[in-house]
């Protein structure tokens, strides 16, 4: 009886291993991810004779295995932002199953981000009312841009169009996220300049870089700083 149990256990034994690949997002259907034959050091035709097949985790099958060539191919274009949002790493998991003997390989495919999104501000134009008598170095918080990409492809810098009255200050908060401020560097005079237009630009770190802009329209409010004249 002990021998029977031992033999039964040996027949039920499953060989398991893990293999990892990576592929950029947005590749078209049929793009080659890797060759499974080479990765697993299998003989030509072995995938076919052992009835190899992929089992995807989830309902959508993002990849296709050609059991004659061993090529692992993209089944449909993958959008990393739709699939994983800001989560990193973005992983798709599958199992490669071979029979006679039964072997199961866990396949982990990392979807790499590409710079396919430009920074965006919520509005194209922002209006700001500023009294002309405010002191130098007064700051005005500005709304950040958003970028669906991650890492180096996300927003890396902000710039402000050249002007004599304001400069831009970027500060890191406790969560290491940016806060941006408009800082007054020269006194405003409504009688000389009642309105001022600036361009705030967000720049990502991709190659090539992508940018997003917002128009800042400053309305200088009057202060009673002039005497009546006859």
TrEMBL record:
Membrane topology: Single-pass type I membrane protein
Transmembrane segments: none
GO CC aspect terms: plasma membrane
One Pfam family of this chain: Cadherin_2
InterPro entries: Cadherin-like_dom, Cadherin-like_sf, Cadherin_CS, Cadherin_N, Protocadherin/Cadherin-CA
A GO molecular function held by the record: calcium ion binding
GO BP term (any one): homophilic cell adhesion via plasma membrane adhesion molecules
Keyword flag Iron: no
Residue intervals of the Cadherin domain: 62-121, 122-230
UniProt KW keywords: Calcium, Cell adhesion, Cell membrane, Glycoprotein, Membrane, Repeat, Signal, Transmembrane, Transmembrane helix
Signal peptide feature range: 1-17
Main location: membrane
Name by which UniProt lists this protein: Cadherin domain-containing protein
């Amino acid at each position: 009886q002990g021998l029977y149990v031992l033999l039964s256990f040996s027949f039920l034994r499953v060989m398991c291993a893990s293999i990892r690949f990576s592929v950029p997002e947005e590749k078209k259907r049929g793009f080659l991810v890797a060759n499974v034959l080479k990765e697993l050091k299998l003989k030509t035709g072995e995938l076919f004779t052992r009835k190899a097949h992929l089992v995807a985790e989830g309902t959508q099958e993002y990849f296709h295995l050609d059991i004659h060539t061993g090529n692992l191919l993209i089944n449909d274009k993958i959008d990393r932002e739709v699939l994983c949002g800001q989560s990193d790493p973005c992983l798709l998991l599958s199992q490669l199953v071979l029979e006679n003997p039964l072997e199961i390989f866990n396949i982990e495919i990392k979807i790499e981000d590409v710079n396919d999104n430009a920074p965006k501000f919520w509005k194209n134009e922002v209006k700001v009312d500023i009294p002309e008598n405010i002191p130098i170095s007064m700051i005005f918080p500005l709304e950040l841009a958003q970028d669906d990409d991650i890492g180096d492809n996300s927003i890396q810098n902000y710039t402000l169009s050249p002007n004599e009255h304001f400069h831009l200050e970027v500060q890191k908060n406790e969560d290491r996220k940016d806060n941006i401020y408009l800082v007054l560097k020269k006194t405003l005079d409504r009688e000389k300049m009642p309105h001022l237009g600036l361009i705030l630009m967000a720049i990502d770190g991709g190659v090539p870089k992508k940018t997003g802009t917002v128009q800042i329209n400053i309305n200088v409010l009057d202060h009673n700083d002039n005497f009546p004249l006859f």
